[in-house]
Amino acid sequence: MVRKYFGTDGIRGLANSWPMTAETALRVGMAAGQIFTRGDHRHRVVIGKDTRLSGYMIESALVAGFTSVGMDVFQFGPLPTPAVAMLTRSLRADLGVMISASHNPFHDNGIKLFGPDGFKLSDEIEAKIEALMADGQEQTLAAPTDFGRAKRIEDAQARYIEFAKRALPKNLRLDGMRIVVDCANGAAYRVAPTALWELGAEVISIGVEPDGFNINDKCGSTSPEALCEKVRECRADIGIALDGDADRVLMADEKGQLIDGDQLMALIAKTWRERNLLLGGGIVSTVMSNLGLEQYLSTLDLDLIRTQVGDRYVVEAMRAGNYNIGGEQSGHIVLTDYSTTGDGLIAALQVLGVVAESNKPVSEVCGLFETVPQILENVRYKGGRPLEHKQVVAAITDGEARLGETGRLVIRPSGTEPLIRVMAEGRDNVLVRQVVGDIVAAVEEVAA
User: Fold this and answer.
1) Which ranges constitute the DSSP H helices of 238-301?
2) 69, CA 20 to 30 Å: which among 16, 183, 261, 446?
């Protein structure tokens, strides 16, 4: 079946344009509600969202859809994606929903669905939802006596804060540590600074004034320059940058130098191995992770299992191989001892715990390996299949030959935006830049 609505991370698109319309949200609520209504108990769905203006419209439509098929709805308001996944399980809900387009600009929005186990839905269940959305749904409507009820859960943020704080090793606090946290004007703008402050840190918060339009706007993990500058300005010990729904994290050391997801995963894996907490004999990441990470892990006799890009594929491989650390260079870090999806705050707390115990500067603690030169560029296109054009195929073939066995080339369309992502890495930085530039030029010529 061709997927009409769902992509690699739920349904996503320009708000109030197909497929991200109120009608779509209504149909998702009715279809998913029907599929997850099983048994005679009162069925419930939990809904969280980030700070986009369009979240109000989509939330209202989802509530209408779910209640129309007899499901009770618990609304959390602004809350990180991993908090919704956690509370789906904690509240024994039949379904969890997050309204967010993650790291995308404010004009996009999306719908992510979680099963009762807190994991994102499988392709098979998403296909069933799509099939029901395409059919007439009148026969699934509840009788007037069986409508669902909707209510706000006022303590959802407090529940998540307490959950996150428990991720720091017992009896360890962050007293004396000056931390800059950039919440991207997104879902974690209250919970992240509060959790860090309650753990004893001196907290300097930026990106905590959402207005419906400024989510991910020159802030957060997609624009970490603001974080790095603030760390230097305030002479902070460390910086934390989350994205719009707080399932990603990047960090900065005391010099304002960026620490990406590969370095963070390396530190957590090393620490957990020393504490006999690491499962699977390695970690799971994607084809985008730097060769330097793979080489460093090999010195610890640990494996790097690579998947295609997307945190859902990372989680699938983790569950299949019983790994408890996985993630992406972009900062999606999944620690299944704590969460079923990427959790930026939980991952940051693991790093902060190591720093607090070491009494060393962050640059010494987190700089575990030297990265191989890697260049990534994005090319926007209007439509069609530019990667199938002869000119682009020739440029890719030529690039692979020039890089040889000492480099890698990964070309792929984005799963969430009309972009072609061109990544190359190798020992010769000049050559890598030339290869990427030639491929980007070829894609731009045919995509114009």
Assistant:
1) 261-274, 291-299
2) 16
Query: CA-to-CA distance for 251 and 253, rounded, in angstroms?
Result: 7
The span from the CA of 67 to the CA of 205, in Å, is 38
Which residues are part of the catalytic machinery? 102
Distance CA 97, CA 142 (A): 21
DSSP element (H, E) containing 144: none
pTM: 0.90
- Closest Cα to residue 325, out of 367, 267, 259, 372? 267
328-350 burial, b if ≥16 CB within 10 A, otherwise e? Answer: bbbbbbbbbebbbbbbbbbbbbb
344 and 393 in a common domain: no
> What CA–CA distances, in Å, run from 419 to 59, 126, 416, 433, 438?
28, 24, 8, 19, 17
**What are the strands of the beta sheet with 325-327, ordered from one edge?**
303-307, 282-286, 325-327, 333-335
Asked, for residue 4, whether it belongs to a domain, the answer is: no
CATH number where 82 lies: 3.40.120.10
Name the residue with tokens 């379904």: 95
pLDDT in tens, 415-436: 777 889 999 998 889 999 999 9
Cβ–Cβ under 8 Å, residues 215 and 185: yes
Whole-angstrom distance, CA of residue 315 vs CA of residue 358: 30
Report the candidate in 189, 197, 309 with the shortest Cα–Cα distance to residue 241: 189
Domain count, the chain: 3
Neighbouring C-beta atoms of residue 391, cutoff 10 Å? 13
- Which of these three, 337, 366, 395, is where a domain ends? 366
For 135-170, what is each residue's pLDDT tens digit? 766 667 999 999 999 999 999 999 999 999 999 988
